[in-house]
Design goal:
Structural class: mainly alpha
Largest sheet: 6 strands, mixed
Strand order of the largest sheet: 1-3-4-5-2-6
Distance between the termini: 60 Å
Number of helices: 47
Strand content: under 5%
Oligomer: single chain
Helix content: 55-70%
Radius of gyration: 35 Å
């Protein structure tokens, strides 16, 4: 044990604000004379020592501190921990009483601590107390439980999460969150210029929120490795101290327990991360190694424990902390470790599919290959490069196992490959599977390893595997592995850029990859060209889209894909009727067509999610919104059933867009929120941009306006640097529609004008027509119809052509509404009636209510207030029914102005306005929001003189003299 009277305060603790607040509370109570105890429980490396030192440094100016750290060399000496702790007491004379009690009994320790705290409050800090000798732990625990109010002694115990100090209040530390870990890494690498993003992601992944491990990993890499100029070693150094601290708990365990822990740790190597090990497999392995059956049954299926190291959850067995499993493998003798893996490999080969992992693949290989799990265990047992085993792993990974498992298997195959070319190809293939699994940071780390050949600096030296040594005929043939594929690396780079980088970069990378892959890999070549077309589409680059699609030979593909390709190209080339006819042929894709077209194993008869997403896109282009919603729901179910995980954000995004077009705003919001979480989890910021745009559109209907603005800003923040024109157009349209709901017509017109007019800022071809009705409404209500007559005629004419081509049921009604807004007085009534008749056939509460609102507003402006009440009342009820709060407030204001009393739909009524008329209340609210008299007049369809007259009466009724006072009166 070591004691210290000088405690060094750490520079800064990241992500521990809550824990520091708890410690501050304990110290505050201690200063008032109330003691107590707290256990800082955490596995090694999570910062319990740093928190203890922080508390000691904070208390030292106000009172004495006893501080002791465990020493493994003295663990066998009874009471060595307590003697070291009491040895850090203040010098003789500082407090009354002997320096040491006569005996180190629990009562004697309690008496001594109270004596030390008589003069000034005492803080006791026991660091790594779980490593103290048993007598010291028992005595300290006894004393700590009896300290409380009035004791003037507080005890802080830093220990692992074992049972040593059960019964004491405990504060359990978890890993650092992503932001705190990133901030700590920034501090640790502050002297390094240009930390490579891939290296950064790999360090954060490997550390898993453990600050000590993160510091160890970052401290062992060279500047060239940190900046990406040199490859990372296959096993990152720097984890030794944390793993050793975990392994300390193993030394005193019985041999049976240590053997079972080794099997459990080895059995996790072929499982998906976080799923633990199969209890049945461990039972068979333990029995095969001679472990007693009663011991195995007690640990795996009964109530027997393993010192808190293993935990059971159903049929799965987990380590209490992931690093503990790594420590077990790291500190096991190499021969024992290899024997465990070989045993598990043999058992898995015997059992086959009966011991499949919980995330079972859709189809197991039926061609005589050993199960993938068995091959992974054999790879773990391999002492060096093994070309034959690597080839078997690669072949097994082509079966439709989950993408994460296939990625892990391919990475292990690459690690077993000595030749540079096949090694790089296997790392690239592993990166592709990681990307499909929704793990782009892992994919980038694997891609970074394609730049280094076997035996690169930092790679561990390995010996050739028996039976496949380079130089032998069989070994040389297998070691040549797959033919070098120059296009695979740019292909994976392009896939990653498509979801997280500039879309133009993804377009060019995928085009280049398709040219390099060529006829040798038709499936990837097709995916590359389709991805390049998708990147061009989201940018709004129609020639680029046609170029990518034009390079696809439709002959080898199924009818659904061929119709989609030809139909989209025809539509974008201006042959709309031909294109629509072709697109209608792919609205109902066959369940397995997409799998066959891409050259994949067709698997069981489940819908192909990619084919369904294409069908949904075709339906949206046609305007068949009901079909798009139905197909989008099927696509989402297919992705959830068969993956890949990386496709989940896109499936939710497409369904949300379809529901928005159909007027199902609440459903769209729910799906877009789920998609946003999925996009963040799978590292796809470009998908997040699309989903923020969808949420902005939903909020422009449901409100509040602040939510619409926030989602719009988030969408534009990501769309602008990455060139994502489609979500940018949708976000701006959403903001303009929210402005209309709030009565800010001029602002709405300023936002929407550039989208619908010709010019460099023109909106995306797929969305700009959707914004035309809002633009026409904004210009007319803003009083600028005469000034922008030419632009309005052009926009409405183009919208009429689009409405004639699309099957969107709302388009005819919206066109009639636009014409009603622009019509002379004698024609407008009939135009509004025509628009409402179209709405009756199309359905949809929200768009019909908007037309009724405009019609009632037009009637009221013509002083036909009695006639205006009916459409305004219907609009108010419809807006309330579809939860369009801002629009309901606008309709309610119009109805009150028409002379019908309406209860405000605002969350809280403005009591100060109770004495005002409904018209005066509307004017007062607009002015309080900062609108000028002219803006209020435009918003409420009044003249500026009328607004001025009402505003003077408002000031008189409220006893105020300025707009500032009015804003203060009605403000939050």
């Amino acid at each position: 044990m070591t004691s210290s009277t000088t405690v060094h305060r750490p520079l800064r603790l990241y992500g521990r604000g809550g824990e520091l607040a708890v410690l501050d509370g304990i110290l505050a109570r201690l200063r008032k004379g109330d003691g107590g105890a707290l256990v800082l429980a955490a596995p090694p490396g999570l910062g319990r020592t740093a928190l203890l030192r922080e508390a000691a440094a904070a208390h030292r100016p106000r009172g004495p501190v006893l501080y002791s750290t465990a020493s493994s060399s003295e663990r066998g000496l009874p009471h060595s921990g307590l003697r070291a702790l009491l040895g850090s007491a203040p010098a003789a004379g500082a407090t009354a009483g002997p320096r040491h009690p006569v005996g180190l009994t629990p009562d004697a320790l309690l008496t001594r601590l109270r004596q030390l705290g008589e003069e000034r409050p005492l803080l006791v800090c026991a660091d790594d107390a779980h490593a103290w000798d048993r007598a010291s732990r028992t005595t300290l625990g006894f004393a700590a439980r009896r300290l409380g109010a009035g004791s003037r002694v507080a005890v802080l115990i830093a220990a692992d999460d074992g049972p040593d100090f059960a019964g004491l209040p405990a504060l359990r530390l978890g890993p650092l969150d992503a932001d705190a870990a990133a901030a700590l890494l920034d501090r640790l690498t502050s002297g390094t210029e240009g930390l490579d993003p891939v290296v950064r992601a790999e360090l954060l992944r490997e550390a898993a929120g453990n600050p000590r491990l993160l510091a160890g990993l970052a401290g062992r890499l060279t500047p060239d490795q940190l900046t990406g100029r040199a490859p990372l070693p296959s096993l990152l150094p720097g984890a030794e101290s944390v793993l050793a601290a975990h392994a300390d708990r193993l030394a005193g365990l019985p041999a049976h327990t240590r053997a079972l822990l080794l099997l459990a740790a080895a059995a996790q190597e072929h499982e998906p991360a976080g799923t633990g090990a199969d209890a049945l497999l461990l039972l068979r392995a333990g029995t095969r190694t001679g472990l007693p059956r009663d011991f195995l049954d007690g640990v795996l299926f009964g109530s027997a424990g393993t010192e808190g190291l293993l935990q059971r959850a159903g049929s799965r067995v987990h380590f209490s902390h992931p690093l503990l499993a790594r420590a077990v493998l790291h500190h096991a003798a190499p021969a024992c470790r290899r024997a465990a893996h070989e045993l598990l490999a043999a058992l898995l080969a015997e059992a086959g599919d009966r011991l499949a992992p919980p995330a079972a693949p859709l189809a197991r290989p039926g061609d005589g290959l050993a199960p993938l799990a068995s091959l992974v265990q054999r790879a773990c047992a391999a002492p060096g490069p093994d070309a034959a085993l690597a080839a078997r792993l690669e072949a097994a990974a082509k079966a439709p196992y989950p993408h994460a498992e296939r990625s892990s298997a391919l990475a292990r195959a690459a690690a077993l490959t000595a030749a540079a070319a096949p090694r790089q190809a296997r790392f690239a293939a592993a990166a592709e599977q990681a990307a499909l699994a929704g793990d782009p940071s892992r994919a980038r780390a694997l891609l970074a390893r394609t730049d280094s050949s076997a035996g690169a600096a930092g790679e561990p030296a390995v010996d050739p595997a028996p039976g496949a040594a380079p130089g032998t005929e069989a070994g040389a043939a297998a070691d040549r592995g797959p033919a070098p594929d120059r296009g695979l690396v740019p292909y994976v780079h392009g896939l990653l850029a498509l979801r997280s980088g500039p879309a133009a970069d993804a377009h060019e990378a995928l085009l280049a990859a398709a040219a390099l892959i060529g006829p040798d890999d038709p499936r990837r070549a097709l995916d590359a060209l389709v991805g390049a077309a998708e990147a061009a589409w989201v940018v709004g680059d129609i020639p680029g889209y046609l170029k990518a699609m034009g390079r696809i030979d439709p002959a080898p593909h199924d009818r659904q894909f061929a119709s989609y390709r030809a139909g989209m190209c025809a539509v974008l080339a201006g042959r709309t009727a031909e294109g629509h006819a072709l697109l209608r042929q792919c609205l109902e894709p066959s369940d397995r067509a997409g799998s066959r077209a891409a050259g994949r194993d067709p698997g069981p008869p489940l819908p192909d999610p990619v084919a369904l997403l294409r069908a949904g896109a075709a339906a949206l282009v046609l305007g068949e919104v009901a079909t798009a919603c139905r197909t989008g729901a099927r696509a989402l179910a297919a992705v959830r059933t068969r993956g890949p995980d990386a496709l989940l954000p896109q499936a939710l995004e497409r369904l949300a867009y379809a529901e928005l077009r159909a007027g199902r705003h609440a459903g769209a919001r729910a799906h877009a929120l789920e998609g946003l979480h999925a996009a963040r989890r799978t590292g796809q910021p470009n998908s997040s941009v699309h989903l923020h745009a969808a949420l902005a559109l939903a909020a422009s209907v449901e409100g509040p306006a602040e939510a619409c603005a926030a989602h719009c800003d988030a969408a534009l923040a990501g769309a602008v640097p990455h060139g994502l024109a489609l979500p940018a157009t949708l976000a701006i349209w959403a903001r303009g529609r929210a402005d209309l709901a709030a009565g800010r017509s001029e602002e709405a017109a300023a936002r929407l004008g550039p989208l619908v007019r010709p010019g460099p800022r023109q909106g995306h071809v797929a969305a700009r027509m959707l914004a035309v009705p809002c633009y026409v409404e904004a210009v007319v209500l803003g009083g600028r119809a005469a000034e922008e007559a030419g632009e309005l005629r052009t926009a409405v004419t183009e919208f009429a052509g689009w409405a004639a081509r699309t099957a969107d049921p709302q388009a005819p009604a919206q066109l009639a509404r636009c014409r009603a807004l622009l019509a002379p007085t004698e024609e407008a009534d009939a135009r509004y009636a025509q628009a409402l008749a179209h709405h009756d056939r199309a359905g949809g509460d929200f768009e019909r209510a908007r037309t009724q609102l405009l019609y009632g507003q037009w009637l009221r402006r013509r002083r036909r207030t009695r006639a205006a009440r009916t459409p305004l009342r219907d609009a108010l009820i419809a807006f309330q029914r579809c939860s369009a709060r801002a629009w309901a407030e606008r309709a309610g204001g119009e109805l009150r102005a028409a002379g019908e009393p309406v209860r405000s739909v605002r969350p809280a009524a403005d009591g100060a306005l109770a004495a005002l008329t409904p018209q005066q209340q509307r004017i007062a609210r607009c002015v309080a929001e900062g609108a000028t008299n002219r803006e209020v007049a435009l918003r409420l369809s009044l003249s500026p003189r009328t607004v001025d007259h009402h505003l003077r009466n408002v000031f008189a009724a409220l006893g105020i003299r300025s707009r500032t006072e009015l804003a203060r009166l009605l403000g939050p």
